[in-house]
Design a protein that fits this description.
Layout lengths: L2 H16 L6 H12 L3 E5 L6 H11 L4 E5 L6 H5 E6 L4 E6 L6 E5 L6 H13 L1 E4 L2 E4 L5 E6 L12 H4 L2 E5 L7 H14 L14 H14 L4 H15 L4 E3 L3 H17 L7 H12 L4 E2 L1 H5 L4 H11 L10
Parallel strand pairs: 1-8, 1-9, 2-5, 5-8
Antiparallel strand pairs: 3-4, 6-7, 10-11
């Protein structure tokens, strides 16, 4: 399977998800790009905008196992990662796996869980493993988390700390329907399905093995020129040096842009990255990694405005053959 064939498969995935999820195809494309590099995605949006439908549809389309956790204030770490249970008949402790042992995990309203439970996801999201009483259990491949949180409801919530936010390669928003036609289309499809959850009827358009192979193509077969690498570094370092910023993106932010741009290049059918691939993700990959100074917060500065301003000033590499 070459890059062209892999790109065709990606297009099939996007079109198949779009048959069920009414909204911007760019959101689907960005979710796919994140998944191709095993990146976790945080959807920050209002309830009822199709985040769960998008996650379940995406999982079924690629033939992946899907599980959902509804985060609540009384949720314990063992409810997520699992625990050891004493089996008196056999006289041994048996490890009962938690819902993280899946391919795609939907962490619904993640900010409703207490910090200790949120922290239980850190090792899982970063290391793809769970450690119980000194014993390590590896997760399945692929594995990535799609998490949601409500941006305006704060009662009974625990804001995600910067260390947790930094684990998400993208922070996306599905948004309200863009026009009345999309609003009507959502209702038409509901009438056509005859039920609220049509995902049980979705057939995979690609096998999980093929999906893992496409991930391998992104990693091994997409070329990144040295000038593109310096372009990413220049953007990130300029953000860190902005006088309104207290703490800018870490090198993990630079790597996020690098990996996402490679995935997007493959989706677009290219075996090399261009600067426009980076611009597609620069806001969603970096804005949540910026900590503003108190006076900037007081003045209502938007991290996205800082990023856009810097991207407009950083010189775009050009002149090389593959750019």
């Amino acid at each position: 399977m070459g890059v062209t064939k892999a790109s065709e498969k990606c297009r099939e995935i996007i079109e198949s998800v779009a048959e069920y999820f009414v909204g911007s195809k760019l959101v689907i494309t960005k979710t796919l790009a994140a998944s191709l590099v095993n990146g976790h995605v945080l959807f920050e949006d209002y309830p009822g905008l199709g985040k769960t439908l998008l996650a379940k549809t995406f999982a079924n389309v690629i033939g992946a196992e899907f599980r959902r956790i509804q985060f609540t204030p009384d949720l314990l770490p063992s409810d997520i990662i699992g625990t050891k249970v004493w089996r008196s008949r056999e006289g041994v402790f048996e490890f009962v796996k938690g819902p993280v042992f899946t391919n795609i995990l939907l962490a619904d309203e993640i900010n409703r869980a207490p910090p200790k439970t949120q922290a239980a996801l850190l090792e899982v999201m970063e290391e793809r493993q769970v450690t119980i009483e000194g014993e390590t259990y590896r997760l399945k491949k692929p594995f990535f988390v799609l998490a949601t949180q409500n941006p305006i409801e704060y009662e009974g919530t625990y804001p995600l700390p910067e260390a947790q936010l930094d684990r998400f390669i993208l922070r996306l928003s599905t948004g309200y329907p863009r026009n009345i036609d999309e609003e009507c289309e959502i209702m038409r499809r509901r009438l056509k399905w005859g039920k609220d959850d049509p995902t049980q009827d979705i057939k995979p358009v690609i096998s999980l093995d093929d999906f893992l192979w496409i991930q391998h193509k992104v990693e091994e077969d997409i070329f990144v020129d040295e000038e593109v690498i310096r372009y990413i570094a220049s953007i990130v370092r300029s953000i860190r040096g902005d006088p309104r910023v207290d703490a800018g993106p870490s090198p993990r932010g630079s790597l996020a842009l690098l990996k996402l741009s490679k995935a997007y290049a493959l989706i677009e059918g290219r075996d090399f990255v261009i600067p426009d691939d980076i611009k597609v993700f620069v806001l969603d990959a970096l804005a949540h990694r910026i900590v503003l100074k108190p006076e900037s917060l007081f003045e209502g500065v938007d991290p996205r405005e800082i990023i856009l301003s810097i991207v407009s000033r950083v010189e775009v590499p050009k002149g090389r053959e593959k750019l």
